[in-house]
Amino acid sequence: MDEYLSETVSISVNERNIARSAEPSMPEAIGSGVVKSVLGKGGAAVVYEIWNQKLEIMRAVKLWRPFLSEKVLKRFETEIKITAKLHHPNIVEIHNVGEWEGLPFIEMEKIDGFSLKELLKKRGVLPYEVALAVAICLCRALTYAHNHIYNLFGRRFRGVTHCDIKPANIMVGFSGTVKLMDFGIAHPASVPKVSGHNKITGSLQYMSPEQLGARKIDPRTDIYSLGVVFYEMVSGTKAFPAQSMEELIKKRNSNDFVALESFCKDVPQKIRSIISRCMEVDPDTRYRTSNELLQDLERAYRKITTIPPEQIISRFMSGKKLRKKQNIFSSVPVILLATLGLLTLTVTAYVMKDTFHEWINPSEKTILDQSQNSFYQTDDQVSDKNLPVDDHQAKTAPQKKPVSVSGSNTAKVVQRNRVRKKTQQPVVKKEKPAVVGVKSEKSIESYEDELVQNQVEDKNEETVTDEVILDQIQQFIDNKEFEPAKRLCKEFPIEDAEYFLIYAQLLAKQGQFMAAIEQAEKSLNYSSKRKSSEEIRGDMFYIKAQCLGAMFKQKGDEDIGQKAMEAWYDLKYMYRSNTSHLRYKHADKEIRNISSALQQM
């Protein structure tokens, strides 16, 4: 009975019994591959694991049972159209749809792991840092879904309310990935839905009081259900154990669940408070938005550990020991030693400052200060030209002169500012006696040697590499000399990914954001001599997100705001394994700002 109350109910009991008895025969092949196994069975569908030979990957196919009422077909159509429009790291991806022997199916990505329902059954209670990490990933998916703008059945909507958050609809991968799936009973968040009397849609164990009480449903419904799932993860027990629907409804309406404080005292108070607020009967006393909930979850997480949520989940799934944030008092001896060492170095440097005066240069600027004005260099990718130099280097290094570009002389300008190859050795002049009878101070041999030297230099003048040109363009951009930079870009198109990224910077600096995005995306079609493919992808995502963010600030358009938030999500996901990276932090901040702005529209 408890298992039944945990399933999704959207049809009558009689219809469900017919559906269960109508078991489809197992296909040999379906979708893009060959069936390997059965992953799961539900009241309306069966999920198969298939092997795609061409791509050499496993996928999952959800095949509807032969019982096809109009209501079930409507659920299927809604799930396809809504899920296909959602693209987020924590939402399952749809790859294909079709029919097998007249039965509709959805082909989607297959996660190498377990459903949260299976995980809880195998492991029981989850460590609270793992449960918190899973909750963060789910809340990220909801924040995205609740703010997504899309078209459905010829109408324009904003936001999707899932309405069926439960452990069976959450996949946890061995890699630490958490995916929300099954949007079969989801509906537009911008259109509050009212359930009719005697109609229950959702999972009885996890649905909100408003779903049970035929009241208006909005995104706060998902917040409630997430709270119930979170309760089960940290406690190992269901929040509302019941043997009948009547008993469950009575407990839910009266908010009759055992407080975590009474039997989960090891769980931090902040986590217990978050769960309690999510599970408030009155929607107005819950978190207003999933983004507000996400901020609280991440604050609580940062107090426990500095490891990214995906890594914590991955370590738990692989059976490794979880690393927690080190207690500051256990580090006191190390801190004292480090402080004494630093003090010793400081005193030594002060005593020897007359001998090593170049160590101390109060006029130096930090790398961060010098990169503040750059549209592109707001992270740790700072070129050598921004590094501070000491007094000795400043005096001896050759000084770069300002370069001007005019017309067709651009190539000559680049040549005059080239970087010569270090392997070329200067010609050494031979000392020879002066020839008698020559009145000049220089001998004939000296003139010949000088002529050879000039020829070598002239030959060097003709050697201009792609890297030299790219560095020159970047220098113009950094100096805000946009016209000469643009002229160089047009005169020297280079088939290198770095070229398109630099060109994109230039266009973005001039406010041509769409053109900048187009150039940045071209970089993915080319290789680079100096940058790895990961660096190219990171740079492209960063430029695209900044451009869309700037466009949203200018125009305040909801469509652009949604695209900007998705672009920042892509960037954040790319740097998810390094949450201390400046780009990850920048993306996180922009997502919050854009989400807040969209909420106010």
Describe the structure.
There is one protein chain. The protein is an alpha+beta fold and 601 residues long. The chain has 3 domains: 2-317, Transferase(Phosphotransferase), domain 1; 328-359; 495-601, Serine Threonine Protein Phosphatase 5, Tetratricopeptide repeat (Alpha Horseshoe), CATH 1.25.40. It has 23 helices and 17 strands. The chain has helices spanning 2-5, 13-21, 70-83, 116-123, 128-147, 209-212, 220-235, 245-253, 269-278, 290-304, 309-317, 332-351, 367-370, 391-396, 410-416, 444-461, 466-478, 482-491, 497-509, 513-522, 533-555, 558-574, 582-599, and strands at 8-9, 29-30, 33-41, 45-52, 57-64, 94-100, 103-109, 113-115, 149-152, 155-158, 160-161, 170-173, 178-180, 187-188, 193-194, 202-203, 216-217. The chain has a 6-stranded antiparallel beta sheet, with helices on one face. It has a 3-stranded antiparallel beta sheet with strand order 8-12-13. A two-stranded antiparallel ribbon has the order 1-16. Helix 18 (482-491) runs antiparallel to helix 19 (497-509). The relative contact order is 0.07. Residues 10-21, 324-332, 347-409, 416-444 and 455-462 have low confidence and may be disordered.
